[in-house]
Protein 1
Amino acid sequence: MLRDRVRLASVSAARAAGAFARGAAAPYHLMKSMAIAPPERLRIAPPDIRTTDSTVADQIYAGYFSFEGKTVQARGVSPFLVAAPSECWRRSLAGFSWLRHLQASDKRVALATAQELVADFLSLPKIPADDPAMEPAVVARRLLSFLSQSPTLLDGADADFYDAFMLALARNARLLWRALAGDGARGADRAFCAIALAEFAVCADTGRKIAPHVSRALSAELDRQILIDGGHVSRNPQVAVDLLLDLLPLRQVIAARGLQTPSAVLRAIDRMMPMLRMLQHGDGSLALFNGMGATALDRLASALAHEDTRGAPPVNAPYAGYQRMEAGDALVLVDAGGPPPFEFSLSAHAGCLSFEYSLGIERVVVNCGAPSAPHLDARELARATAAHSTLVVGDRSSARIAPQNAPRRRAGRVLGGPRNTAVERRRLDGETTLILSHDGYVRDFGLVHQRELTLPADGAALLGVDRLIGAERGGRHAQASDFALRFHIHPRVRIAPNADGAIELTLADGEILIFDAQDLTPEIEDSIFFAAPGGARKCAQIIVRGAAAPGAEIAWSFRRRAGAQVPPGGKVC
C-alpha cells in the first residue's frame, strides 16, 4: 500500500505542476480560442470511412434512436429534449456519428431528416457543462461528423441554418482548443480532440490561423501515445482502431488540399496497422486484452484496407507488451506487459500473462473481454484477473484497480500492479517457446508467476507450464493461499470430461482437443463471455486448483485429435 501511495503522490504532484502551468497560460489560450472565427465556407469535406447501414436511417426517420444498447422512440419530439436512458446513449446521440447512415440513404426524406435533426440541436439553449454532450471526446466526434457530412447538411440550406452551422463548427473548435490547453481532455481523448481540430484547420477557411499550433499539438499527442511498435499506450486495441478511423480521413483531406502531412501522422498510421494485424485472430476479431470488447469487423476492415504495404504480422511487440506465436493454423496471442501509465489506465485489465488460442477461424481459449454498454455494471468483474486465461493467486487480481465509485481522478484507474515483467522468446526447429513472468503477486504472497508456452512446428498441440517462484524480496507478510489456473473457453466450443480425467473440447467444425493437467484434475465451471457480437453469453472455463507455494508447478496441454465425434452430454454454452 505504501508503494501505491507513493506512486499516487508522484502522479498527483505531476498533475498539480501541470495544472499550475496550464492555469498560468489559461488567459492566453482563452484569447487564442476566441480568435477561431466561424468559417465563411468549407474548402473541402473529409470522408467518413466507417461503414453505413440504410436500416439505421429508416429507424431514425421513423423516430427510433438506438445507441449503446438503448432505444428511445422520440414520438415527434426532438431526441435532444427527451430524457436520455443512459449517459452512453446521450454521448452517441450528441456525437452525430449516426449522420453517415442518413447521408448514405438514397431517400431524400432521410437527407431532410438529417438537416432537421442538426437544426434541432443547433437551436438548443446553452447546454450545461456537465452534460455528456459537452465532454471533449463527444465534442470532437460532433465536429468530425459535422465536417464529414457538411455537403449533405448544407445542400439547399437557408441562410439561417448555414450561419448557425458555421457558428457551431467554430464553437466546437474553441471548446476543443481550451480542452487541449487545459485539463479538460485526458488520456486518449486528447488525440481525438487534436485530430478534430486538425480537420477543422484544414477544411475551414478560417482554420489557417490555428493550423501550425494544431499540427504541433497533434504531433505531440501521437508521439506520446503511439508506441514504437505501433501499440497505443493504453494497451487497448480498440483505441488504435478508433484512432485510425479518424487519422486516415485526415491524411486524405490534407493530401487533397496539397498540404504537407505531419510526419507524426504518417508514423502513427504506418505503425498501428501491423500492430492490429498482430492481435488479429483467424476469424478477423481482435484479442480481448485491456478493454477490447466485441470487434466491429466492418470498422476494422475499413481501417486495414488502407494499409499501404502488407507483410507478415509482427510476432513481438515489446513496447506494447504483446506476443504472437503461429504454427499452421494454430495461433496464440499473449499479454506480456504490465499496466499502462496511470492517465491511460481507465480501460486496462489485470490480465498479465493471459493468452488466447485459436485454430483457423475457431476461437478456443479466450479472455472474457470488456462488456458492452448494457452490461457496464459488470465492468469491474471483467477487468479482474479471474476473467482472464491465466493463473490467479488467492482469488486476487495481479493489478489493483480503483472502483468506479472512487474519487473522480482515481475512479477506474490502475493503482498498482506488476512492476517487472520479463519475456524470453526461443525458436528451434520451427517450435516456438515463450518464457514469461510478472511480479504482481510479490507484495501480497511473495510469489512470482512464471508461464512457459510452447507451440510445436506442426501446431498439433499447445503446451504450457505455470510456476510459482519465491521472490527474493518482498512478501514479508506473505499469506498462505491457493491458486486457480483458469482457461476461459469460447461459447462455440462444447466441453465435457472424459473417462481419463481429462477434458474434451469439440469445436464448431467438429475438431476435438484434449486438455490435460499433469497430476491434477481439471474442473469445469461456468463463465461469461462479454465480447460476443450480440451481447454477453454464458460459456465455460477449465480450472486447475492447487496450493500457492514457492516451487508449485503445473504442466498442462491442449492436444488436437482429428476425426473424433462430439462427446455425448457435452456442455454447450
Protein 2
Amino acid sequence: MKNFSLYRIVVIVSMAVKFLLQIALFRRKHRRNWTNQTNEQWESLLKQQAIEYRQTALRLEGLLIKLGQFLSTRADIMPRVFIEQLEDLNDRVPSVPWKSAKEVLEKEWNKPYDTVIQKISKEPVASASIGQVYKVILPNGDTAALKIQRPGIERIINTDFKALRIVMWILKTFTPIGEQADLWALYRELDITIGQELDFLKELQNGIYFKNRYQSFDYVDAPFYYDKLSTRKVLVMEWVEGARITNLDHLQANDIDRRELAVRLVEVFLEQLLREGKFHADPHPGNILVKRDGTIMLIDFGMIGEISRSDAIFIRQLVEGIILEDYDQVIHALENLRFLLPGANRELLKKMIRTLVNTYTSRDFSLSDEYLVKQLFADIEKIVREQPIQLPSEFAIFGKAASTFVGTLYILDPDIDLLQVSKPLLFQWLKENYEPKDFLSPRTAFNWLIQSVRPLSAVPRRVQQALDEPRKYREWKQHHENLQLEQALLLSKKRDALVFIVISFIFTVLGILFHHEWLLYSSGTVLLFSFFYYLFSLRANRKLLKKRR
C-alpha cells in the first residue's frame, strides 16, 4: 500500500495540511495573549508534529527520510524542536530480498551476476533508503563492496516529489514562509541533491575525486572504485577493513592516539571546508573509518557539497571582516554569498553579528552566566528567523557537515582546543588567499592581519562590551514585534480561510478524478463550510482595517 502513488500523495499532502491548520488555529487562538505557558504549548505542538513526521517518514521511507535529513540542515526556516527530532532521522530501513536486488544487478550488468563476481554475501551488510551494500569477492581475488539501488526507489521518490510540489505551492501561496524563503529554490536544491544520490555514477566521480585529492596525504585516504563495473544503479568499490572513528575500543586495541587522531581529523575537514572545491557533506562516524595503522578512510560520497571559486573569495572576505571587526565587509560578503534576501535590516544584523563575535571571544562571558548566554542566542535566533535570511543549499549542507564533524571530534577528544588546533591552518589559508588592496605588500598585510587577530582572540570580552547597545536594540525589537503583530492580525483571518478553501478544493478534485466517493463528499462538505468561513473572515478583516485607521 505504501508504494501506491495516490496513497503516498494523499498521506504526504494531508499531513502537511494538518500541520498548517494546527499552526494557524493555534496562532489565532493565542494571538492576543501569548504567555510563557502558551509558548510551552506551542513547543509541545511542534514536537508532536515532528514526531508524527518522523514516524510517517520511517513508515513510507522514500523521499520523506531524505527530506527530513535535508530540513534538519535548515535552521533558517525550521523550528529548533523540529530539527532536534529530524537531525538523527535514521536512514536504515529493512532490506529488500536478494532476488529483487539480483534482478536490478543483472539488468544493469546485462549478464548473470556470477559471471562478474566470484562470491557474494546474500544478506546485505548495510541497508539504507536508496541502496544496500553487499560484500563480494571479484574474480581476481579482491574483496569489494557492492552497492545496489533499491528496486523501484526512483519511481517512489518521483511520486513523493509530486506531493512535495503541492505542499510547496500551498506554503508559497498561503503562509508567511513563502515571503521568508525562496521555496522553489529549496525544492530545486533538494531535487538536485536527491538526484545525485540516485545516480551512482555521480558518487563514483566524487569518490575518484577524493581518492586523487588525498594522494599526497599520509594519514587519510578514500576507497578505490571499479568504474568498469559501476553503473547508474550499481557501484563497486574497494572493501575497507576498519572501524568507526568513534569506536574507542578499536583505537585502544591498536594503540592509536585519540588526541593525535582528532588533530588529523581537524586538518582533513578544514582542508575541505575552507578551500574551493568539493567537501564531504555527511561526515558522521559511520562514514569515517580508521584502519589498524591509524589511517583515516573516508567513504560514502553520495552527499557532496561544493564551494565555487567566487564563493571562496567571499568566504575569505567574511572571515577577514570578522577578524578585523569590519562588519560592513561582513554584511557585504553575506550579500554576495546570497544569505540576505531583499528587505533585510543590515544595521540590526551588524549589531547581531558583533554581539555574537564578542560573545564567542569572551571567556568571562561564557563562564559567568550560562542563562544569559542562552537568552542572548535565543534573541539572535529570533532575529534570524524574522529577517529575510536564507541559507543557500551549499552552506546549509556546509553547516550541517561542520556540526556533525564537531560532534565526532569531541567524542574522540573532549578536551581538544578547537581554536588552538585550527588557528595555524586558518592563518595559512588566509595567507594563501589574501588579496591586499591598500597595503604595500602581501607580507606586510599578512603581518598586520596576524597582529589584529591576536588581541581579538586573546583578550576576554566583558558582558557590558558584548551588549554595549542593549537599549536601542530592545526598543527596535519591541517596535518590530508590535508592527508584525498588527500585520498578522490584518492577514491571518483571510489567509486561514483561503487555506481551507484551497485544500478542500484540491481534495474535491482528487475525489472526482479517482472516483473516491468518500473523499469527494467529505472534501466537498469542507469546501462549502470553508466558503462561509471565508465570508466571515472578510467581514472581520474589514472591521480590523477600519479600527487600525
Protein 3
Amino acid sequence: MMQSRTHTCGELRIGDVGKTVTLAGWLENMRVVSAGLAFVVVRDFYGTTQVVAETEEMVRLFKDITKESTIQVTGTVRERSSKNKKQATGEIEVVPQKVTVLGKCFHSELPFEINRSREADESQRLKYRYLDLRNPEVKKNIILRCQVVAALRQAMTDHGFMEITTPILTASSPEGARDYLVPARKHPGKFYALPQAPQQFKQLLMTAGFDRYFQIAPCFRDEDARGDRSPGEFYQLDMEMAFASQEDVFQVMEDVLPPVFAKYGTYDRASEAPFLRIPYREAMEKYGTDKPDLRIDLYVQDVTDVLGGCGFGPFESGVVKAVVVSGFNETRKFIDKTLAGVEVQAGDKPYWFRVDEQGELVGGISKFVKPIKEQVFEKLNLKPGDFVALSAGKLSQAQKTAGVLVKTLGAAVPGHMDKEQYAFCWIVDFPMYEIGEESGELEFCHNPFSMPSGGLETLLKAERGEIDPLSIMADQYDIVCNGIELSSGAVRNHDPEIMVKAFEMVRLGEEDVKKRFPAMYNAFTYGAPPHAGIAPGIDRMVMLLAGEDSIREVIPFPMNKTAQDVMMGAPSEVTQQQLDELHIRCTAEEDEEAE
C-alpha cells in the first residue's frame, strides 16, 4: 500500500471490479449531468481514472472542489457501461464513498488549461512550470530524459567507465564563452567560476591514472539562447579515456548511442557503426555546414567557373554555389517565401532559376543563364523539373547561404528528406588555426587543447615557413545527428612542449600557458598519458529523441530566452548586507543616475 492510496490512477483494470480502493490525485475535470449524477476525472503521475458521483450529496461535494485541487477518493471499482478504449483505465470506473481534499487549489481561474498548456504563451508556461508539468504531454519528455540518462549511465558503466564528479566552484579560464562568476567571501576581490565544462578536471583525472572517466556533467555558460541551446546551464555525457586514440572514442560512442536512440527515439531507425566520417572542409563544400543533416539528399556544387562570368553582378566577385532540387513543382509564392526565410537565416540573398517541362530556363536570374545554357546543363546535369538555388560572395558566406538552402529546401520540398531516422556522422580533420576576423592574425580555430595532427614536427615546419599554418589539422572531431551538433571532442595535447609551441603560434608564450592553465600544465610535466574524449549534450539528445524543436521542452525548469527564471524570479536583487559580506559594490544604480 502506498501513502494515501491503494492504487494509482493508471493502475485499475477490469480484474479489479468489486474492490474497494483509495485513489489520490488532482481533480482534472468534472462534467455534471444532473443534480444526482456527475463524472469526475482524477489524474496522478501514472494516468487518469473516472469517478462517478451518483448522489446529490456527492455531486455537491465535488462541485465545491476547485479544479486541480489534490483529492483522495475511496470507493468501489465497477465495470463501465460505455468503455473508453483510448484510456488505460477505460474499462472501469470508481463509485465514491468518501472524498477528502488533501491540497486545495485556491484559484478558480487557472493560467491555462492543463491538458492544453503547450498552446499557452511560453512566458506563462515558464512562470507556472509546475502546472505545465502536470500536462502528460509535457511530463513525458521529462520521463524520457530520466530513462535516457539511466540508459547512458548503464552503457558507460558496461564499457568500463567510472562515474566521477568534478568541482562546481573552480577557477575562471578562457574556454570560449563567458563565465558565471561567484564571489569568494573569505577572499575579497577574488571569484570562483562555475565550470563551462569539466575539461581540465577530466584531463587531470587521466594524468592521475583513472583510465576511463564519465559523468552526467552540469556545465554553465553565459551565452545567448537558441532553439538547440539553453542559456545558463546544460548537461552533457562527459567522458575521457587514457591511452586512447580518436578511433577508441568513436568505437565507444558508436556502441553507446545507437541503441539508446533506437529504443527511446521518436524514430526507430538509427545509424549503425561505423558512422560516416566527413572531413571538415569537405562538409563545408558539399553541405555548406559542418553540421550536415544526412537525411536530406541535396548537396552543394561549385559553379563559379560557369556562372562567375555570366554578367549577373553579385556573381562577378567571390564564388558561386548551387543547390539542385529535382522534381520541383512548387509555386512562385512558395519560392519567394522560402528564399526570404533563407535570407533571414543566412544573412545574405539567395538567387534561383528553374527548368520547365520543355527544358527551358525560366524565372529568377534565368535571363543571365540562358546564354550559357549548355555549359550550365552539363555542369549541373540538369533535366526538366529541376530547380536551382544559388548563393554567391566570399567563400564562407556563400557556403553558409548554400547550407541554409540545403536544409530549408530539403525539409520543404517533398521527396528530399527521409525524416524518420537518426542519421549520425563524424566531422573530422578540423583546421587547428584560422585568421581571426577582428584581429586579422592567426588564432585557434576551435579547441586549443587539441593535439595538432603530426605533433611537434608539424608545428616546427610551420614555424620554419615550410608549410602554411592554416594547413595544420587538429585531431578533433564533432558528432552530428540530424543536422545538430551533439558534441565536440578531441585527442588532447598532453605534451607540455607541444602545448607551448601550439600557443606560440598565436603569440602566447610558455609563461602565458602556465598562468592560464597552471594545474594542467604542471600536471603534464609529471608524465601524462595520451588521452582523448568527448561530451555529447544530454539536452540536445533528448530533444532529438522526443522530436521537439525547442530544447526548453525537455528541461524540467528551463530559463527563458534572456536567461531568466521567471518562476523563481532569478536573477534577483540581494540585500546590501550580502553585498557587504562579499566586498561587492553594485554599480547598476550609479550607472542609471549618471545617465
Protein 4
Amino acid sequence: MPQGRRKTPFSGKAKKEQLKLKKHRQGFTKPLLLESSGDENLSNTSKLNYQSKKNPKTKVNRYALIFHKETEEEIRQRKEIARQSLVPVAEEELEINGCDYYPKNLDFPKRPEWSYDLTKEQLDAKENKYFAEYLNAVEQNFSSQDIGVFELNLETWRQLWRVIEISDILLYIVDIRFSALMFPPSLYNYVTNDLKKEFILVLNKIDLAPASLVVAWKSYFQEKFPNIHIVMFTTLPGYNLIGNCSDKAGLQVRRRRGKIRMAAEGAQSLLEVCKSIVRDEVDLSSWENKIQEEMNLEFDENEKVEVGEVIEQKIVDTGSFQHEKYKNGILTIGCVGQPNVGKSSLMNAIKGKKVVSVSKTPGHTKHFQTIFLTPNVRLCDCPGLVFPSKVPKTLQVLMGNYPIAQLREPYTAVKYIAERLDLPKLLRIEHPDNDDSWSAMDICDGWAKKRGYLTAKAARLDSYRAANSLLRMALDGKICLCLRPPKYSSRIDFWSAHLEVQKVLWIQAKSEKEAKSEKEAKSEKEANFEHSDGSDSDDLFELEAGDQKATASKNESSDDEDEENEDADEESDEGIDSMTNKFAAIQE
C-alpha cells in the first residue's frame, strides 16, 4: 500500500489560522480582529482584508462595523484606573450639555454632488476619494484621543445617504437615557437647513426614565433646536409587560407579555406630528383607523404574529436620485439613529407585529429595509451609525455603540456606573476581600463570586465575564442610569409638576397612581435594604441577559424574542473590524 505524505504536526492555534485563511479565500470570512505593529501602518493581513472590501465582486465585510482598537498601553492604563477606589460623584455630574460633545468643526460625511451623467465606476471613485479626504481632515483637526470611536465604513454611510435622499421626513431616534449624547446637531442642520426637510426626534425607551426627566429632555431639545418635532415613545408600554417593573432591590426587570403588540399611544403621537407636517397632501386615514382599532382591541395572548412584507433595498448607484416629495401620494419616513437605540423595535411596535429583525448586538441591521405601514405610509430602517463626536468610549459602551463582546477592557465602564449608582447595594454582593473600600474590579469579582463565574483552568473568579454581564444589564436597562439636562436637579419640583407628565404616563400606559406607588416602593426598598437578610438574592439570577432558563416558565416568548435575548457568552463577533489607526482604513 503506497505511503502518503507524512503530515507535520501543528498546534490548534495554527489550525485556526489555517481555517481563517481558507474561509477568507472562499469569500465569507468574519471580519478579522486586526493586529498591527504600529499606529500608522497596517499589517499584510489587514491590507488584504480592506482590499477585499474594495472589490465590487466580493462582499466580504461590506457592511462590517469598523472601529478603532486600543493599544496595549491604553488597556494597561485603563485597568489601573479600574483598580482605584470608587469616589461617588455628585448628582450634578449627571447633568450634561450634548452640544459640548459635538463641536461645529466635527461634521459627519455627506454625499458629494453627483449627476446621472456619471457612470457607476466614476461615482464610486468620487465617493471613495471624498471619504478619504474627509477622514484625513478629521485626523488633522483632532487626535484619536480627543474623539470617540465612529463609523469608518463607507458602505454604511452610503446607507444613510440613500435613506436621507428618499425620505420625506427624517425620524431620528435616541435612547432617553443618553439622548443628548446621541443627537448630532450637524445632521439636524443638514436636514432642516440644506435639504429643507422635516426632522422628527423620537425620545425612545421612556419607560426606563421618570416622567419628569422625559419632560425635561423634551424641553431641552425644543429650546436648542426650534425647528424640531419631538415624539415620546416606548416599545414596551405597561400593557405589554408582565408584573412589576423592578425587583426587590430596585433593578429594572422588564418582561414582555406574549407576542409583539402595537404601542398605540406612541404611534398616535407620531401620527399627530405627521398629520401636522403633511396636512392634506397625503391621506393618513388608514393609519389613523389602524391605531384606533388597536386601541379598542381587546388583547388576545394567543394572537398569531404574521410577518409583514419586507423589501430589502440594495444600493445601485447609477446616477443621482431626484427626490419627489410625497411621490404617488406616499409618505416616506426614514428611521435613523445610533446602534441599539431601538429603530427596528420601534418599526415593529408601530406596525404591531414583527416585520424587521432585531438584536442587541450593534451592527445587526446591515442594510436599510423598507416596509409599508399602510398603503400610503412607508418606513425605511437605516443601519445604526456612530456619528463622529467627542463622547468618551466609556459612555459609548454604555450607550450601546460598541459591541460589549468586543471590549478588551470593560472595567472602566463598570467604574463609571458604580460612581453614580450604588452597585453593591443594587446587586447585593459582598466584598471579595471583606474590605470597606470598593473598586470597579472588586464589584466585578463580587458579582463573579455571586454568580459562580470561574475561569476554566485555574478556577479563579472570572472578572471579565462578570463585567460583561453587568454591562449587558446596564444596556438592557436592568441597571438603569439616566443622564440629565443642565440644571435639572435644581428644578426637579418644576418638572415633576409639569403638565406634560400626564402625557408621558399615558404613553407609558401608566396611571399617575401607579407611577407614584412605584416611586414610593423604590424609596422603601432603598431605606430597608440594609436590614435585608439576603433571602431575596436568588431574584438576581433572572436578571442577566443570557439567563434564559430562569425566565422560560414566566414568559411566553414570541418568535423573535430569542434574537432580543441573545446568549451573553455566545454573542457573535460578526460585523466588527478593528485596527490600531482608525484613519488607516482607507490608506494603502
